[in-house]
Specification:
The complex is a heterodimer of chains A (239) and B (469). By secondary structure, chain A is an alpha/beta fold. Chain A contains 13 helices and eight strands. The longest helix of chain A is centred in the last third of the chain and has 17 residues. Chain B has a six-stranded parallel sheet with strand order 1-10-7-4-2-3, sandwiched between helices. In chain B, strands 8-5-6-9 form a four-stranded mixed sheet, sandwiched between helices. Classes of the chains: A alpha/beta (239), B alpha/beta (469).
């Protein structure tokens, strides 16, 4: 199988290890990996703020760049849901119909791809630590992915997964929301952190770098010892 | 006390900084969510019920004109009267004029969001008529001179100690914070009003077009008294409360009770089809139904936000919303708060006066997830944001940033060059390891440093070295 990587701009610029580890994981899973160099951003920041014209232009580009891809895999539930859920809403051009349908159907978030497409739950990784898992909103509620990341975590040797209270509660990031309403956003991060601390986990694992940036940014400012960790980093670093 | 939706940012940051308020909101919404979750768990077909209700509401809203006319005909056939109110003023004036004709000096009111929306209490007071709120929560906030902070629980923002103090101060009764004692006092006081009022005002939860039956759901029995003791009963309903058939009702009753309070059924469900008829023992002599538009036709005209008219006002989206949980209802500056308020208020009052509300969401989607009639609430907020941006009602800095962003992202060469230049500049100025200072973010959270090597650079390097694919 040939997989085309869809690397979110946030990962590209700030958290490249997530992409690098995803490459390692996919190769271990036995698929050939390609990175279409013409890709930039899926357009979600513009879309979420109401700038649909700008977002539509980037959505069209995405279809061009990934039009021929067999499978598109992305280490972010949020960017994946932009493509799968919102592209059909903003690209009303009937001429795009088929291409749009194919590209959205072929785009998968990476844990969903591994578990539900490849049938892989055990990558033979060991990580003897106590972790808790945060459900990223878009991954959980736009894409309905809840079990796949937990399956992957549970099959890691030596790991202890402790569920936090309200793991499905938003961390408070929300893109521009985090800077438009910093007080509310921070209060949400505060409550999320309290739930994380209660588990006495060493790591908080999630599948979206944006959530981890929010949670990790708050934890480190408070001098709290829990470390944010993308699931791709957890798996890839220990392969 | 006169809050407006334009003050959301200020009011929200005040409330979020108040630990006592935050505890109150969190415990009240948490309790409601727990009750709901328990009761929904016992209905294995819950998701099917949501789908069915969504489809029935869709049917009602897509054919609103014909179902409303059918409702009107059914109500008239049963001896009731129907008044079509274009806006809040027309609706209030109709009730005020009824009071004049009846020479009513007091009106007993049961809980009604539509009445709140049109400012009926104020209109009555201005006409010299005393509006008496008979729902306990509404009674409390009326005495306190407040507005409701929740669709279902108007006094959610108050603790029982505060209510005890309020009753002690306003009525001179000995201080108590025992709910049963406070309730007994209110009951005694209100009972006299029920017996003397000539006009009773109620809201409407559902109105069946085929039978002309209006349905009122409550737990205190006050709505039943309001609609049966006075000589005249006026029910005020938003246009969207019509359901096609009386036989649709059981489905909605199940969804509403479980979603709002976690009850299997509310204590009272009143079904009223017209005034008292010959040979009947009780009921009012006259029954009036006010059909309130007040902006609803405009919402209906826009297919992208039309689904907001499916709302059955259960309040579940408020309880589950992480924003509502932390800022409370008053921050929204209008009678409708939480996610549904963030959708309806800009549509009712104008986008420009409520332009923060569509953005007052992290788009987490828990509102859409809990909604018993499956309104895609957080997507509706996205459409409102689009309306604001396309009307250029957003800040110019943001518009500029977005066009630069799109221009840079449309051109991969520009994106690559930009990211390389940024790294060079950071390196030259010795800032490359330092986290960015981001306005709004950095005062409370660390922002990561730009990675030394971007992913695309890594890919390019490794492919050249033959380590790539």
């Amino acid at each position: 199988m040939n997989v085309s990587l869809f690397i979110p701009c946030l990962v590209d610029q700030f958290f490249p290890s997530v992409g690098i580890n995803l490459v390692k994981i996919l190769r271990k899973a036995g698929v050939s990996v390609d990175y279409p160099r013409e890709q930039t951003c899926c357009g979600q920041p513009a879309f979420n703020s109401g700038y649909h014209e700008e977002a539509t232009q980037l959505a069209r580009r995405f279809l061009e760049v990934f039009g021929e891809a067999e499978t598109i895999v992305c280490p972010s539930g949020s960017c994946t849901s932009m493509v799968k859920v919102f592209y059909p809403e903003i690209l009303q051009d009937p001429g795009l119909g088929r291409q749009l349908q194919e590209v959205t159907a072929r785009t998968r978030e990476f844990s969903d791809f591994l578990v539900n497409v490849m049938g892989i739950k055990d990558l033979g990784v060991a990580f003897p630590h106590r972790v808790t898992y945060h459900d990223a909103c878009h991954l959980l509620r736009e894409l309905g992915v809840h079990r796949a990341p937990r399956e992957l975590i549970r099959h890691v040797r030596g790991i202890e997964l402790v569920e936090m209270e309200n793991s499905d509660a938003c961390c408070g990031f929300g893109g521009a929301f985090s800077v438009k309403f910093p007080e509310i956003s921070t209060a949400m991060a505060q409550d999320k952190s309290a739930a994380i601390l209660q588990t006495e986990a060493e790591y908080v694992v999630a599948n979206d770098s944006s959530c981890l940036m929010q949670i990790g940014g708050y934890l480190s400012r408070q001098g709290l010892p829990v470390k944010p960790l993308h699931l791709a980093d957890l798996l890839g670093e220990n392969l | 006390m006169n809050r407006t939706p334009g003050q959301f940012k200020i009011l929200a940051s005040e409330n979020v900084a108040d630990p006592r308020l935050r505890r109150t909101f969190q415990s009240a919404t948490g309790h409601a969510l727990g009750q709901r979750a328990q009761s929904v768990q016992r209905v294995p077909e819950w998701e099917d019920l949501r789908d069915r209700a969504h489809r029935i509401k869709e049917e009602a809203v897509e054919h609103l004109d014909s179902y409303l006319e059918k409702l009107e005909a059914s109500v008239i056939r049963r001896g009731g009267r129907v008044f079509w109110a274009r806006d809040a003023k027309e609706a209030s004036r109709y009730v005020v004029e009824l009071c004049r004709r009846l020479q009513a000096s007091t009106v007993v009111k049961s809980k009604s969001m539509a009445a709140e929306e049109i400012g009926l209490a104020e209109a009555l007071e201005a006409a010299g008529v005393e509006p008496v709120e008979t729902d306990l929560g509404e009674f409390i906030i009326q005495v306190a001179g407040e507005t409701p902070s929740h669709i279902i629980a108007p006094a959610l923002h108050m603790t029982r100690q505060q209510i005890g103090n309020l009753f002690h101060e306003k009525f001179g009764i000995p201080y108590t914070d025992v709910p049963a004692e406070l309730c007994a006092f209110a009951r005694q006081r209100l009972r006299r009003q029920f017996l003397s009022a000539r006009l009773g005002v109620s809201g409407v939860n559902f109105a069946a077009a085929d039978t002309g039956t209006i349905v009122i759901v409550e737990n205190e029995g006050n709505a039943r008294l309001c609609t049966s003791l006075p000589r005249v009963h006026v029910a005020i309903m938003g246009l969207e409360k019509v359901i096609p058939r009386f036989s649709d009702l059981p489905l909605f009753l199940r969804l509403l009770a479980r979603s709002s309070t976690g009850q299997r059924q509310t204590s009272y469900v009143s079904m009223i089809s017209g005034p008292r008829r010959e040979g009947e023992w009780d009921g009012p002599e006259e029954f009036h139904l006010v059909l309130l538009d007040n902006g609803r036709s405009d919402i209906l005209a826009d297919p992208r936000v039309r689904r907001s008219l499916y709302c059955i006002r259960c309040g579940a989206c408020l309880n589950t919303c992480p924003i509502y949980q932390r800022v409370g209802g008053h921050a929204y500056g209008s009678v409708y708060s939480g996610p549904i308020g963030s959708v309806l208020t800009p549509l009712f009052q104008g986008l420009e006066v409520a332009k923060d509300l569509p953005y007052a969401s992290s788009l987490c989607g828990s509102c859409s997830n809990i909604c018993p009639v499956k309104i895609d609430l957080h997507h509706q907020l996205l459409w409102l944001r689009e309306k604001l941006a396309s009307r250029r009602a957003t800040p110019w800095q943001e518009r500029l940033a977005m066009s630069l962003f799109a221009a840079g992202m449309k051109d991969p060469a520009l994106y690559r060059m930009g990211s390389a230049l940024l790294r060079l500049w950071l390196k030259a100025s010795g800032k490359s390891k330092r986290p960015f200072a981001v306005p709004g973010w950095s005062p409370t959270r660390d922002f990561p440093a730009l990675a030394e090597t971007s992913f695309r650079q890594w890919w390019a390097d490794h492919r050249q070295q033959g380590e790539g694919p």
